[in-house]
Design a protein that fits this description.
By secondary structure, this protein is mainly alpha-helical. The chain contains 23 helices and 7 strands. The strands form 3 sheets. It has a 3-stranded antiparallel beta sheet, covered by helices on one side.
Amino acid sequence: MCRLQDGQHKTRASGASVTVCRDPNTLWRMTILNGAVLRPARDDASSTPPLRWDRSAEDILADTERLIGRVKKVYDEIGRVHVDAVSVENTLRALANVKMEYAACRHSLDFPQYVSPCKAVRLASTEADKRLCDLDVELSMREDVFLRIVALQEKKLPENASAEEKRFLERLVATGRRNGLHLCPEMREQIKRTSKLISELSIEFNKNLNEDNTFLPFSRQQLDGLAESFLSGLDVDQGSGLYKVTLAYPHYFPVMKRCRDPETRRKMETAFHSRCKEANTIILERLVSLRAEVAVLLGYSCHADYVLEVNVAKNATNVDAFLRRESTATRRVLLCSPGARAPTEGDASRWPPWWPTSPNRPGVCPRCCSITRWRRTFTSLDTSCTRSAPSGMMVESDFVEVPSQMLENWVWEKEPLRRMSRHYKDGSAIPEALLDKLIASRVANTGLMNLRQVLLSKADQSLHTSSSADSAAVFAKHCRDVLGVPATEGTNMMASFDHLAGGYDAQYYSYLWSEVYSTDIYFSRFKKEGILNPNVGKEYRRVILEAGGSADGMDMLERFLGRAPCLDAFFRCKGLTCHSDAAL
């Protein structure tokens, strides 16, 4: 990706990373390594609307229709090219340009549904999402464009074509086949119809969560332990005088971490894991069935195998083996800790989510927010460093988080903390003793959090390796198997697990999978050779960041590490002593 002017940011769509410039006077450019400059279908500012907070509901819908029109026009132009006249310029680069523009523009339209305080804007953004998802399905089933791509591959690219262009072409052909464009018209139509229904149901699932306004009334005594600053921000019922506590994260997590009343925490946890239970349970289980149907039509045994084929993991068997190793190793280490014992049925009522925060147990929210901001900053920078386009945008879903996760490690080192930290009043440096406590807090509750990620990943895999499922029963089974305690009776956490309807279906494991890679990179190279070593940094940028999706994630890892990745560093950074050189 070429360097753009100040004010750029990154957006992601379906695993793709794109750099977006907020300056309306800056034109889109996409430079392939051989020097060819790719431009969008139009060079006017209106084709790349920035993420604006003043856009009305009417603006969103109008801009959506304009974007759809521009994208369809490019696809129509490619579809009209005679198969004997296809070229890199009129087919490959035209697709690269429009895909990049579309991915960026889309997020200025479908993102407000998650954050806007105006309901009309949220609903318009949801409607935009529906229309754009329909467009996604339409574009994915454009047989005329697919035939031109295949014709270009058979024609062979010119000798001066870059490796990135060749890889992009190969992926376009592979994606077309994965979409079923090589099948008979009847099967293609069935896949198209079902895919649209899947999109509609996924949007409805998340809309239900976005619009949920459930709250629980509590007295001041029932919220004992919460800071006055928290309580002053709550709405109060004028009749009863009770505080209204919603299930939104800024309310839920402080209550669960700091409230001293176990009954309050129990009520909050039960309500939180019952959000949209009736409506979303039906939607999710329908989604599981529909995804399985499409996978079978495309020749796969299950939806998970279809999704994972293009990831580093490759198939559901490999993911299952990885999660088994994670769970077994974590539980073994935890049970070997001083005073540890296996959880029993009676532990359910005092399981950690209901424990209050003690004075020697660091509060999580401020620290997590700092880490999140740091991580998102580097998520943007990793795209700015990518020099491979357009295939550089196509990073495997279980590798895409590696760069940002890897750079989180600097927040747990003294030198970076000293450089970025100052007292907000007098500007003094952070005390050494506080630094030691901050760094030591990294391993607080990591065993439990690790098992929670395994639990959610296993539940996700179970759902998407089946043709149908009872989602509440699936979660309850893995809750007992992985954590050793039952799920809260009458709840269904899966009904509010938005990842399952937000593009991470059969891929929630990728957070843990990527973290294994990121910690191996950090501890094996940076921690060993110097966290501020410029030579290691330059090599990392060249081998990992600049390559982007122009090479397989595993190939980049082995090149940078000099070996296959393993689990040792992951367990070490979690404070879970484990000697396992098992490669992934």
